[in-house]
Design brief:
heterodimer, A: 2 domains, 5-stranded antiparallel sheet, 2 helices, 16 strands, B: two-stranded antiparallel ribbon, 21% strand, globular, binds zinc ion, DNA-binding protein (chain A), ChsH2_Znr (chain A), ChsH2_C (chain A), Thioester_dehydratase-like (chain A)
Chain lengths: 299, 339
């Protein structure tokens, strides 16, 4: 009840912060942090305490004066995932608190670890420090830790200019007219489509140009679940189609049929774009659609 | 060692929100109750446990003295810890042999501020507090280190809440069904309720104890041990200090019928059962424990009071009480009580 006059807000705060002296041991650690180094202190028994304490917590003995640079990388031993960070937390997006065994240390440093989600972390995950821009000698000079780099994403993009000459040009000019051109090898007695200049089997020049029908039979197919700008929808089907009279199947899209109804042996026919929209491109054929004829037994 | 017994215990009907009572108004009824039970108006020694950060005011424990009869001047002390440690100090004071009675109380209102933030202030100011490491976060780190099965944790919460429903001083809280994480792996139902409350205990030495109660709960062993404050220097999955304190107090010298454990989170109960070597024959937290009501700075003292109550009412002959302080069960005090 904010309007209740008997309720008051009360704040406990030290304006400007509370000044504390550090002493030589903690002071050394914080001074090293300012130089972006993490040090531990060696105990009489030889263990390295990180962060350094004045006394060995196991024995109560004062520690030695030997400081050892540790890390900067370490291994998570335990972590807890904070889905809703508080104002005072080091990160304002979901993160983990973790105990981190820095390389060369015998105790664990407690700090925040940035990760996309808790599944990205585990006991054993290697982490590296991310430093604040301007270290001042404070535990928060270590902004947080982040998992070791184990993969990168590199962008790849190169542009090319392609030109259809030779047989492809002749084939595409046929497609512009609404005709599929193939070629026959006299020696191998095989009809290839699209049109080609040489037989891939015997190497002979292929003189005969044939017009092939735009009907055929699906020999095999694949259901694709990734979108493609040329595809009718997702999932879409790409198939090998053996055009009637050809000996080598040609790859094309299948449309006008649910993906799960496509089958080997199915009879299909090209669906052409209207004549007014045609170009010298395979885009002239939207896809192949079932004809409704009985399936063909494949050899 | 002098024989000292618990002869009276009282606690408030705890609340989940601030009722507006000042601290001395909160503790006055429980002190009046133990005075009435024992017939004592003055005590040889008085010791209290509380935390000024809960109220956000310095020396708030001094103004709480208004709940006592503090004039003419009394012999009085205070620990900035749970009232269980005030009881330890009073027990030590009675060992001097010149006094025969002591009043102990603990109190806290954790509803006034954000307990998660306030408990950050108890962390070391160099390495942990500046990170804003909060209470649920460090408890969750310990829960992750224990790595207990969810089913076992839920069962502890369910049992504690069911027992709490049978305790008129504790809360009626729902069974765990909430899948939401507080700080993963701690679920919101693993978190103890925000609680305001107080408790008082009267200790009496030797013959006086027998005159003040028909069944005094004799303190047969009491010990506390601590571990490094910094969490990275400990094995969080275990409590070496609770085990040491339990051995020193003599927990294993006889069967334990009832154990009241200051386990604020279900994984802490697992750690403590192992540290104190409590088997299936021991009834754990029949009061519901801190998961059913958690008045900070009184919850540990209440464990001692609840363990004593089983002896006072004749339902148990040997009980153990445990109190904890500091982050992740850093400090542990174990008391063995016998009829
Ligand atoms: Zn008066």
């Amino acid at each position: 009840m904010p309007s209740d006059p008997l309720v008051a807000q009360h704040v406990l705060e030290f304006p400007g912060g509370y000044t504390r002296t550090t002493g030589p041991v903690i002071g050394r650690f914080l001074t090293e942090l300012r130089a972006r180094r993490i040090v531990g202190v060696r105990t009489v028994e030889g263990r390295v305490l990180v962060p350094p304490l004045e006394y060995d917590p196991a024995t109560g003995e004062p520690v030695t004066g030997e400081y050892v640079e540790v890390g900067p990388a370490g291994t998570i031993t335990t972590f807890a995932w904070v889905a809703e960070p508080l104002d005072a937390h080091p990160l304002d997006t979901p993160f983990a608190w973790a105990l981190i065994r820095l390389d060369g240390a015998d105790t664990d440093l407690l700090h925040a670890v940035a990760a996309d989600n808790p599944k990205a972390l585990a006991a054993g995950t290697r982490v590296w420090p991310v430093w604040r821009d301007r270290p001042t000698g404070h535990i928060t000079d270590l902004s947080h830790f982040a998992p070791e780099v184990t993969k990168i994403v590199s962008s790849v993009r190169a542009e090319y200019r392609l030109q259809a000459g030779g047989a492809l040009r002749v084939f595409l000019e046929g497609v512009e007219r609404g005709v599929l051109l193939g070629s026959r090898c006299e020696q191998c007695e095989k009809v290839y489509v699209p049109l080609r200049l040489a037989c891939p089997e015997c190497g002979n020049t292929l003189p005969d140009t044939l017009e092939l029908p735009d009907t055929g039979t699906i020999t095999t197919f694949a259901i694709n679940n990734l979108p493609d700008p040329r595809a009718p929808q997702v999932p879409f089907v790409s198939a090998y189609i053996l055009l009637d009279g050809a000996d080598i199947p040609m790859i094309a899209l299948i449309g006008d049929v649910p993906a799960h109804e496509v089958r080997q042996g199915m009879r299909v026919k090209a669906v052409w774009v209207p004549e007014s929209e045609r170009t010298a491109s395979m885009a002239n054929i939207r896809w192949f659609a079932p004809t409704g004829e009985p399936d063909v037994e494949l050899a | 060692m002098r024989d000292v017994a618990i002869v009276a215990f009282a606690q408030t009907r705890h609340t989940g929100t601030d009722t507006g009572l000042s601290e001395h108004e909160l503790i006055h009824p429980v002190i009046s109750e133990v005075k009435e039970r024992t017939g004592l108006r003055r005590f040889g020694f008085t010791c209290s446990g509380s935390c000024d950060y809960l109220a956000g005011a310095p020396f708030s424990f001094v103004s709480a003295l208004d709940a006592l009869a503090a004039w003419p001047p009394i012999s009085e002390s205070h620990v900035e810890m749970d009232g269980a440690w005030a009881l330890y100090e009073a027990w030590v004071r009675l060992q001097h042999g010149d006094l025969d009675s002591a009043l102990v109380y603990g109190f806290g209102k954790s509803s006034l501020g954000d307990l998660r933030t306030i408990m950050t202030l108890q962390l070391d100011p160099y390495y942990l507090a500046p990170l804003g490491l909060d209470q649920l976060s460090y408890a969750a780190l310990q829960a992750a280190a224990v790595g207990a099965e969810r089913q076992e944790l839920d069962e502890i919460v369910r049992r504690s809440r069911a027992d709490g429903r049978g305790n008129p001083y504790a809360f009626d809280l729902p069974d765990p069904s909430d899948e939401e994480f507080a700080v993963q792996p701690l679920r919101r139902t693993d978190v103890p309720p925000i609680t305001d409350g107080a408790a008082a205990i009267v200790l009496a030495a030797g013959d006086l104890a027998g005159r003040l109660h028909a069944n005094p709960a004799w303190i047969r062993g009491i010990a506390h041990r601590t571990e490094p404050h910094y969490l990275g220097m400990r094995d969080l999955a275990r409590s070496a200090s609770a085990a040491d304190a339990g051995r020193a107090a003599g927990v294993g010298k006889g069967p334990v019928e009832v154990a009241e454990l200051h386990a604020q989170f279900p994984h802490e109960e697992i750690i403590l059962r192992q540290a104190l070597d409590l088997g299936g024959e021991t009834v754990i937290n029949p009061s519901g424990g801190p998961l059913a009501a958690n008045p900070v700075m009184a919850a540990g003292l209440i464990r001692i009071g609840e363990a004593a109550r089983r002896i006072h009412d004749g339902t148990a002959g040997r009980t153990v009480a445990h109190a904890a302080s500091g982050p992740c069960l850093q400090q542990n005090l174990v008391t063995v009580l016998e009829a």
